[in-house]
Here is the input.
Amino acid sequence: MIRVGPGTYRESREHVKKAVTRRRKWKITPEFLEKVAKVHVNAREGQRLAAVQTEFQVEERQALRYIAAAREAGLIND
Here is the structure.
């Protein structure tokens, strides 16, 4: 059964609002990219992606984005 009405609309908007506000945990700033690079470089070969994922509590795809951004900024050279 699907509920319809103003109450369900407000309820749905609150769920969306919460999801959007917690969506991005980290702003990508030069300082943040330095942290990503430090974690990446200090991790062992083969464990670098997992180290970034664990440190920043993100999925693989987002960790790869962070690493790519750090490379573009010239902070990771490998």
Remarks:
- Residues 6-21 form the longest helix (16 residues).
- Residues 6-72 form one domain.
- Helices lie at 6-21, 30-42, 48-56, 60-72.
- The CA atoms of residues 66 and 72 lie 10 Å apart.
